[in-house]
Amino acid sequence: xxxxxxxxxxxxxxxxxxxxxxxxxxxxxxxxxxxxxxxxxxxxxxxxxxxxxxxxxxxxxxxxxxxxxxxxxxxxxxxxxxxxxxxxxxxxxxxxxxxxxxxxxxxxxxxxxxxxxxxxxxxxxxxxxxxxxxxxxxxxxxxxxxxxxxxxxxxxxxxxxxxxxxxxxxxxxxxxxxxxxxxxxxxxxxxxxxxxxxxxxxxxxxxxxxxxxxxxxxxxxxxxxxxxxxxxxxxxxxxxxxxxxxxxxxxxxxxxxxxxxxxxxxxxxxxxxxxxxxxxxxxxxxxxxxxxxxxxxxxxxxxxxxxxxxxxxxxxxxxxxxxxxxxxxxxxxxxxxxxxxxxxxxxxxxxxxxxxxxxxxxxxxxxxxxxxxxxxxxxxxxxxxxxxxxxxxxxxxxxxxxxxxxxxxxxxxxxxxxxxxxxxxxxxxxxxxxxxxxxxxxxxxxxxxxxxxxxxxxxxxxxxxxxxxxxxxxxxxxxxxxxxxxxxxxxxxxxxxxxxxxxxxxxxxxxxxxxxxxxxxxxxxxxxxxxxxxxxxxxxxxxxxxxxxxxxxxxxxxxxxxxxxxxxxxxxxxxxxxxxxxxxxxxxxxxxx
Length: 593
Known about the structure:
Blueprint: H1 8-17, H2 22-35, E1 42-45, H3 48-56, E2 72-76, H4 102-109, E3 113-118, H5 152-159, E4 165-170, H6 177-181, E5 185-188, E6 208-213, H7 216-226, E7 249-253, H8 264-279, E8 283-287, H9 290-301, H10 306-318, H11 325-333, H12 339-360, E9 365-369, H13 377-382, H14 384-391, H15 397-400, E10 403-412, E11 418-426, H16 430-444, E12 466-471, H17 482-486, E13 491-497, E14 502-506, E15 514-518, E16 528-535, H18 536-544, E17 550-556, E18 562-568, E19 577-578, H19 585-592
Parallel strand pairs: 2-3, 2-4, 7-8, 7-9
Antiparallel strand pairs: 1-3, 4-6, 5-6, 5-10, 9-11, 10-11, 12-16, 13-16, 14-15, 14-19, 17-18
């Protein structure tokens, strides 16, 4: 049986107990893709035979080592997938990349399987989802209503059960507004946390790759697989983690600042979200939204829009007729601004940033509506610029202030239309934000996607006292010494892979023990490892009990992050068997047996 909703942990549990095979899952999804009535969701689909070939290449021995093993996902069509045209919603712009984008390559390395490229507002310019020559995907709840954009197809695909997660992009809210309109989690990471090499820019200094998923736990797992310093991206930043308190103070809109475009049901649902947050013990703090709103309005109403022209300047000069009329009006309008105008707006935003930061200092994070309301396609077509601006009321400012955000479902109006809120916090607070979003999502009970099924995965709040440790052998989950970690309250953070310069050895002991060693100059495929976390006190206890020749050093992973981890003293490698070719201790032990 196919899990509902599609979540990583549920799929993997079914793979492990044999109630579901990758072949069965992907055959079911191919059928769903063929039968789904809204043909505007995808721009390009991976042919069924090509999907089957990817599935056939899966090795069940890698299930524990690859965090996204056999997980289906789709990709917004401004992000490169090797061999599949990238259109950015404009057929005349299309090109076929020879290699995956940075983010797709990381997700594939983690075991995920691409099903197709999804529709978007052309050149990721819009929050509504109707600005595409490939059609307008519709909200999964009512085909008269917009899906949200610009990551329209990516949101609909997950909400409709066509994929477990998807990639979008988010400059002004494109990874959050569609999440609300389709009852999903939408994670917008800190600028630079996920590399953007191989992504068509909208506003290069503000662009983020975003994640749509059915649960915050899934979104966090995908972020872990996707993050890491992208050396080819000048805006990339090394990941770090900012912790938020377990009982947070949250900033909410004062009555004077609550704009719902006349939607009284949305207003009631926002009140319900605040009340539920209070029931979780969150402290409610009203903030003055005025500086945030002014920053939000500047993104499209001032010289900042010129960055969108910069992204497509040469193509626009040669092919203005290829642009959607609404997109063309925005791009063309950027020409009226001078460099002096741009600097004037930069100075204005800097002054507003000080005022906004004073409001942010009153709380740990914000709890805002994701969008004021949802519009019909007909209404959007009648007034595409003004209504799109309304959709960005609570989203446009986030990247200009270098914040992280997680959108989550709240509930439905009597007419069955969805509403959502977004938690917005400091840069690099994604994992803490996601854990708080998960708690509120569960408490509200809106479920996920079209079926509103309740997510099963739970995301624990990370704590600042935790220390991570990389294990490569008998302490791996399910193996003989794993109990030494779990007895100390350690939790599995994720399965991962080392950087290429590591080798694995079976030591000349009885029975053989694994030994991980760094070999400078060696360029292998990496060794399967796991990252565990435990309190600093218990980390000390664990390390103190380690027998020779095992020691703790610094282990570099494939994503560039560095953690304390098991390394073997060099003297013990004499006479040891090099088992690097097996890719990990679990695979070696399994194949020996």
